[in-house]
Amino acid sequence: MADETKKTYTIRLPEKYAAQVENHAASMNATPTTLLQSLIAQHFDLAGQGGADTASLAALGGKLEALRKGFERLEQAEAERYGQLLFEVVKSRSALFHSLDQTVGANMVDEIIEASEQTARQYLAHLDGAQEAKQ
What we know:
- The chain has helices spanning 15-27, 32-48, 54-103, 106-134.
- The protein is elongated, with a radius of gyration of 29 Å.
- The mean pLDDT is 83.
- It is mostly helical.
């Protein structure tokens, strides 16, 4: 198609379709014009060979878009679950330290916190070493 002469057509699309064309083109790292040119060329190439029409391609594209949106919802739900879990851990830790502070005293709680921080530093160093080993 690059070597052929081209004829210009001006079309008008409803705003919702224009936005979909632009979003789809952006997801493919292409311009809307390039996307439309390839869809039209593909339609006529396939139709001339007795192949599938663009309706089946559009249906497949719709299914892929639905899968992408489903995946995004799963990622969002995962992030929300992680946030809830983190909140519960922090809340429990706070209640535990408050209780310990009342029963064993501030000095013992400070020692527990220091030991926990040391363990956390060792764990992070281990993760960093494991990450470097993968590279």
